[in-house]
Write the C-alpha cells for this entry.
Amino acid sequence: MTQNVQSRTRLNNGIDMPWMGLGVFKVEEGIELVEAVKAAVKHGYRSIDTAAVYANETSVGQGIREALAETGLKREDLFITSKVWNADLGYESTLAAYETSLKKLGLDYLDLYLIHWPVAGKYKDAWRALEKLYKDGRVKAIGVSNFQVHHLEDLMKDAEIIPVVNQVEFHPLLNQKELRDFTKKHNIQLEAWSPLMQGELLGHPLLKEIADKYGKSIAQVILRWDLQHGVITIPKSTKENRIVENASLFDFELSPEDMDRIDSLNEDRRVGPDPDNFDF
C-alpha cells in the first residue's frame, strides 16, 4: 500500500497517478490559491485537481509555475487534472474547452482530463473528443466524474477507450460499495471528491473515538480509510498546516475492524448533487 504522499497507483493505461492530491473546489482566483498550490508541492504533493467551472485555473497555473521554479521540480513530476464543464459537452466544444483550460493553466498538456458530469445525451460526444485528445498525445489520460454504474455501462458500450478514473463523491456516509465493486472489476480507478463531506464529518463521535485511538485527527482517519479502500483522495485546503496534516497518513494503518466500523456509517447520503438528478 501507499508509503508516502508521493506514492502512486498505476492506471489502466500504464500512467502512474498519485494516491493523494490537492483539491481546489470553491477556492477563488488569487494569491491564497497560488500559495496553497505552492505549499502543497513544497510539502510533497504532486497532484493538483481543478476544473473549468471552478474558475480558478489561472491561479492554479501560476502556483504550479512558481512551485516548479522554487523547488527545481519539472512539469512531468506533477500530475495535473482538469474537467470539461457541462455547457461544453459536445465533440468540437470539448476539444475547444480543453485548449481553453490549457491556456488558462499555462500548460502544454494535462495528465488527466475528465467529463465533469454525465449530462444525458451529451457525454458520448464529449468522450469521443477526449479519445481524440488522448490518441493525438495531447493528454496523458482520460476519465469521468460523477458517473454511476449505469452511466459507465452506457459509455463503455460505444467507447474505444475505457475511462482510467471515475471521480465521485465518496466519504463514510456515502461509501459507494456498488460503484467500487464495478470500477474494480473494470480496472477503473475510483477517486474521492469531498472526502471529508465538506467538513460535516469532523465532529462525528465514532470517527473521533477511532481518531483518538490512533492519535490522529478525524480528517486523517477518513483520508486513510479512503486509501485503504484503494480510492485516490484529493482533500481541499488552502491552509499550509492543514495541507501538511492531510498528508500525514502513512505512519499508521486502520485495523480491519475499524475499517468495518467506518463502513457501517454508510447512509447513501450526499452533500453534493445526485448524478441521476441534477439540472446544470
Summary: The two ends are 38 Å apart (CA to CA). The chain has one domain: 8-200+230-238.
